[in-house]
Amino acid sequence: MAQVYSVNAVGYINLSVPAGFSIIANQLDAGTGNNVLSKLFTSVPDGTIIYEYSNGGYNISTFAFGSWDVDQTLAPGQAAWINNPNTAAITVTFVGNVPQGSLSQQIPAGFSLQSSQVPQSGALDTVLGYPAAEGDIIYRYAGGGYTISTYAFGAWDTVPTPNVGEGFWVNTQTAKSWTRNFSVNQ
Description:
Elements (H helix, E strand, L loop, with lengths): L9 E8 L2 E6 L11 H4 L8 E6 L2 E8 L2 E2 L10 E6 L5 E8 L3 E7 L2 E5 L22 E6 L2 E8 L2 E2 L11 E5 L3 E7 L4
Antiparallel strand pairs: 1-7, 2-6, 3-4, 3-6, 4-5, 8-14, 9-13, 10-11, 10-13, 11-12
């Protein structure tokens, strides 16, 4: 009898979303057609709003009466603002495959919302493989304010270390590819 082995690593992320605004990221691939708000955010309270930033503006989706008015995609590597209307934190659970292999995402010049494509925490450049360049600025949002990291003279003034499920702003002078090879067996 032949043995069959899966090369996929399936996982889940329980993300605590505080009241008010935060920047979140889905870092698991739920499969073709399943990385959409209606499949990813099924038990959020009415009044929850997702803001995806693209081309200098926001695409806004609101959860009301049990459904999303716009069913946007939030794939691994993408990040978005979420506004939790509750006075307490809610838990959002992402389920899917951990992206593996040669992973690449495009980072445009200027401001963009980004995240690691894999559910891993660590130093942005040395652990997560972000291609830092002179003048890059990373803005991490938490607790109503920003932690700002600037890459100058070949080093970060404060090394950005995003958490699993966390998105952040990138401000870069030139467009680039964030490419890394990742395997859960490393």
